[in-house]
Amino acid sequence: MSMQAQTCPACGGTIREDHVHMSLWKGERLIVIEDVPAAVCEQCHEQYYDDFTRYRIERLGENGFPVADAQRVLEVPVFSLDAVPIPQQEPAETDEEASVWQPDWSDFYETG
Ligand SMILES: [Zn+2]
pTM (2 decimals)? Predict the structure, then answer.
């Protein structure tokens, strides 16, 4: 899709151009690609990439992301839902569809 598009095809929200960090799992390895140009929906946070960016991402991954080619290596904290006790009462129901639900961490997404 074009970077000039202004409405999110997924939810109808407003899209703005930005740079994002992509993360993807390759088996047990977590890969991060920094500063990827993307059109980002302000409402559902869906990210859209133009054709040239997709091409570059595909070329970058062709060799399976060897560590020797990485710009740097991050140490990443890993969490488990097991740390959160099951509440005595059922949480209030939300009318949001499970597929579009996002945690209410606005600040988290702002940092890109
Ligand atoms: Zn959206």
Answer: 0.67
